[in-house]
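Letters spell out the chain; backbone shape is given numerically. Take this protein:
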Amino acid sequence: MSTQEAERTDQTDRKKYEFRKVIEDLTQYEGSGTQLVTIYIPPDRQISDVAAHITQEHSEASNIKSKQTRTNVQDALRSIKDRLRYYDTYPPENGMVLFSGAIDSGGGRTEMITRVLEDPPQPIQSFRYHCDSAFLTEPLEHMLADQGLFGLIVLDRREANVGWLRGKRVEPVKSASSLVPGKQRKGGQSAQRFARLRLEAIDNFYQEVAGMANNLFVPERHELDGILVGGPSPTKDEFLDGDYLHHELGEKVLGKFDVAYTDESGLSDLVDAAGDVLADQEVMRDKREMEDFFAELHGGELATYGFEPTRRNLVMGSVERLLLSEDLRQDVVVYDCPDGEEFALVDRRADTPEHACESGAPADVANREDAIEHLIGIAEQRGTESKLISTDFEKGEQLLDAFGGIAGVLRYSTGI
């Protein structure tokens, strides 16, 4: 990957993370009654038209019976209209989404908030005004879903499994067991009759597997990026050469691959075996990053992991690639100490803990920020690539569970 491509990937990953974080916050908010306002604005919708629509909604809100709900809805609409004054004729390139309303802040109190999400990962398709007890975030969540949809089939003459590769996630869906007899014929049967019965059983099993695949994949055939088939030879060859699949699915088969296992684990093995075909997919990029890290961890000197060692290496400029779990949900607290700043990693929703400096002096809190943003900020200053790694595969899970979601591959060994 070129330097420019790497920078674009880093920027895309960070933007997706920032959107995901905001969406997670928004889904936590609740309003009393239908008073949380969400507005989706497509890129071709003039700001003046949106402002006129909000003025109309503000007027119609005067008919709301509950005084509190009426006041909160009108205040939210007024706040959104004020935000729109910062924009010219049209919204940003991919449109924008505005959220505003009085949220429950506990103790019977409410707090008015307004959030603007500019230029989402994909263009907003249509104008939408939504007023409810929760903000409407589902359309944005769909945009952030990992891209790519592949059908997966693994089979031998004993069993078969069919499923999906959705972005970075392997999803087993259907399985079947075979009634194909072994090659050893039972007593009393002629070899010719036994061979014929066995071929019929194989044919019936292939038809059953194709039926599972057809039922699962045909409804999604227009969204499918391809189909991968795995298993031992000659099973997968017989299956594909026999034209058992629906003809539209047959045209989408990207390749057949040798896979030793045909249970659910075989679906993940199939994705690994098809690495060259899937080279441009996010799941393979994540796997390559983690394979490089584990290679250095077990046989080299260029692996770092954990918050403190990785951060120190980042500050030194010795990290070539920073690896962060997409599911890392922690903050970095910065404390002022007599000998300089000290840092602690805490759960995002936990209170800021007290801290004693290494010198023994009590510490004052200087700052608290999201851990991913804190580390990526240092990486950008040092020219380090940053990669957000999914937990939808084994080594991605290990990054989060075994290494705290923070690791890296170094440019040179530092001994830290």
Remarks:
- The chain has a mean pLDDT of 90.
- Residues 318 and 411 are 5 Å apart (CA to CA).
- The two ends are 28 Å apart (CA to CA).
- The first helix runs from residue 3 to 27.
